Amino acid sequence: MSMRGIRGAITVDANEAAPILEATIELLGAIVEENGTRPEDICSVFITVTPDLDATFPASAIRRMAGWELVPLMCSVEIPVKGGLERCIRLMVHVNTEATQAEIRHVYLGEAVKLRPDLSSAR
């Protein structure tokens, strides 16, 4: 078994707690579904948000999900690159898996599809 990183990103329409929390759950749910993982397979989740999202901690949504209480979570602010995608939440899910690197399914939703169209089109 290997540890792999699964990337994902999603955008929200507003810097408000509810949309941020809902988008975080939607993105994590899609990553888990696409890759057939379970919380007990997850080593950790690293979460970043763009500087314009400061209404809440996205990790608080994951902590409320059944089975995710013991998964280590870390939030940070994305590097503020000029012209970068706004109102974006990114996840890096570290998972123990038998899947090869080529079999990992990264997930990009909403406007975040622009970040990696090469990976988004594979969905």
Automatic annotation (TrEMBL):
Species: Cohnella rhizosphaerae
> InterPro entries, per this entry?
Chorismate_mutase_AroH (IPR008243), RutC-like_sf (IPR035959)
The superkingdom of the source organism is: Bacteria
- Pfam families assigned to the protein according to its UniProt record, in alphabetical order: CM_1
The reply to whether 4Fe-4S figures as a keyword in the UniProt entry is: no
So what does this thing catalyse? chorismate = prephenate
Give start-end ranges for the coiled-coil region(s). none
Task: From the Swiss-Prot or TrEMBL record, give the protein name.
Answer: chorismate mutase
Q: Identify the keywords attached in UniProt to this record, alphabetized.
A: Amino-acid biosynthesis, Aromatic amino acid biosynthesis, Isomerase
GO MF terms, alphabetically ordered: chorismate mutase activity
- Enzyme class, top EC level, equals isomerase
UniProt keyword annotation of Ion transport present: no
UniProt-annotated binding residues for prephenate? 7, 90, 108
Q: What is its EC number?
A: 5.4.99.5
Please name the GO terms of the biological process aspect recorded for this protein, alphabetically. amino acid biosynthetic process; aromatic amino acid family biosynthetic process; chorismate metabolic process
